[in-house]
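ligand=2-oxoadipic acid
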Amino acid sequence: MSTLSQWQLRAAFAARLSEMYGQEVPAYTTLVDVSREVNEDVLRARGADAERLGSIGRVTAERHGAIRVGTPRELGQVARIFGALGMHPVGFYDLREAAASAVPVVSTAFRPVDGAELARNPFRVFTSMLTPGDPRFFDAGLRSRLEAFLADRELFPPELLALADRATAGRELPQEEAERFLHLAVRAFELSAEPVDKSWYETLERISAVAADIGGVRSTHINHLTPRVLDIDELYRRMTDRGIEMIDTIQGPPAWKGPDVLLRQTSFRALAEPRAMRTPDGAVISGALRVRFGEVEARGIALTREGRARYEELLGRVDERMSQNPSASRGEIARDVWERHLPGSEQELAAEGLAYFTYHLHPDRPRDGSRPPTGLGELLRQGWVHAEPIVYEDFLPRSAAGIFQSNLSGEGTRHSDQQGTAYDADWLSGAIGRDVLDPFALYARQRNDSLAHVAHELGLAETLS
Ligand code: OOG
Ligand code: NI
């Protein structure tokens, strides 16, 4: 009997989710089509260089999703489902701090972690969890109502969770069970037709539209699915030409002549979707909610901690210059700041320790019997070894907050005089019963593994760093 391995389950889940979301939100299909057109054009124009940060096969299939849940228990169940797909929690994002509007959530991202798995299918899901215990947003009364509401709902049927555990334990599922698992998993993220309790939803909406989307309904749903594009500026122009209203900016690094680093993202505005509502007198009426949107992203090279600190510093410089000159174009100011303060080539990023690369023996390395130099710098300079950039697989808190925020109509309510509840990656690990991994450690491991391999192949006694 045939079976599906974890990566095959992951790829199938991503494809089916995409098909389902395209039916629910047709504008998403437009975004996917335009992304594919742009990618084909870039590949034609730039050739092999366009595939430096991932093969065209990987990039075309590549998506991230975003989902939102209410409790550590629900997040633990999500971890079981994604664990079955070979996706692990990576990184901790505190959007309560990063957003100006009320976004009472903390988040992580579920994704494959090793190079071979990422190359097979890099599907990742940005997963946010509500923080009812944060008194800046919820008073004691609302907190207990919200917690009771969340405790009483079931997002994922026991059969789905049992199949997930089985896939994790065996690292695969037989065909028939795989089919059932995929069916139940996709269904768990469909928009529910069950009427929304209008007054409860509105109570939460006064605090935060995100709180209402999560805690105002008895089910969950995929919030958006994001294709990857090789030229996001061109994508933005083409979507605008088609009359689709995009948010004002592209989040993240500016367009500039140096290497692409980290992540650039933009989105179109949330669309009004019809939703059944139950009014306090019990009548069911047809209403509309605006929560789901389309997003697209371009990915660049992963930065080291030092590189990331530089990135944050540059954002600060851009903010400062914008505050001195509010009518200036943020994109132009950012470009200017970047050209002054960030190295303009991969070689310099590597030499300054700002970005992650893997290292490989050069096919044209000297073969005249000469002994290789022992330092990495010399190995690169003398053509023994070449460097390949590691693509950034994670998210950026400020961009994520910007994406949340640009799709909220109101600011919501936040009592800044209250002390916020502190959460961090360790707390989250404990709450969901599995380690939330450190993204920097994962990139460093990829780099170090490649260096160990090179040193071994060249017969070098000492480790390269
Ligand atoms: C998640 C927003 C963050 C991203 O790509 O940064 C995000 C959400 O809206 O639930 O998806
Ligand atoms: Ni997103």
